[in-house]
Amino acid sequence: MLSHNTYFEGAVQSIGFTRNGRKATVGVIAPGEFRFGTDAPERMTIVSGALEARLDGSEVWRSYPAGTSFEVPGKSAFFVKATEPCGYVCEFL
Amino acid sequence: MLSHNTYFEGAVQSIGFTRNGRKATVGVIAPGEFRFGTDAPERMTIVSGALEARLDGSEVWRSYPAGTSFEVPGKSAFFVKATEPCGYVCEFL
Asked: Which of B4, B24, B84 sits opposite A19 (nearest CB)?
């Protein structure tokens, strides 16, 4: 029912689940900079710590403290930077 | 740096991390009822879905929707019930 996902040699890990027919994950991003490609559109909500993010095609890094979120188009990509471990919820829209 | 924790045959799974010297996990509780023992005091914050919880020694179940939290004393225990997968942040205090 739950899945464990690991990326970037374990520097990003998440637990996946489905609720009301929608897929989501909760996870942690260790310190570093990472690129994620999207298939479906996604909403990333920061739930612990803080994250910087930049959408593909933009030069602008934005800061997202816990309690804030951003959305990423499908068939796209985004870049994140964490200076401390950051907890997030990712909803596939 | 990150750890993957699994309990109750995979029905509860979390990713553990340390920030500012404090340990925390983000995880998912699959539908079911589970008992957790505590060593250190913990703060549980619901970040996706909803959870019912009861502290050891209490008869009262309380509902915690996403955005709410509860604290559990150390050397204690608490019971949770989820009807749908529930995402949480657990901070060790």
From this structure: B84
Instruction: Write the single-letter amino acid at B4.
Output: H
Q: What are phi and psi of B9, to 5 degrees?
A: 55, 40
- Which domains are present in chain B? 3-92 (2.60.120.10)
**Residue B40 CB coordination number (10 Å):** 13
- Which chain A residues are Cβ-neighbours of B27 within 8 angstroms? 15, 26
Kindly report the pTM of this predicted structure.
Answer: 0.96
Strand residue runs (E) in chain A: 3-7, 12-19, 22-29, 32-37, 42-48, 50-55, 62-65, 69-72, 77-82, 86-92
CA distance A28 to B15: 7
Where on the phi/psi map is residue B67: left (φ > 0), alpha (ψ -120 to 50), or beta?
left
What's the complex ipTM? 0.95
A21 touching B, CB under 8 A? no
SS3 of B24-86:
EEEEEECCEEEEEECCCCEEEEEEECEEEEEECCCCCCEEEECCCEEEECCCCEEEEEECCCE
**What are B49-80's pLDDT values in tens digits?**
999 999 999 999 999 999 999 999 999 999 99
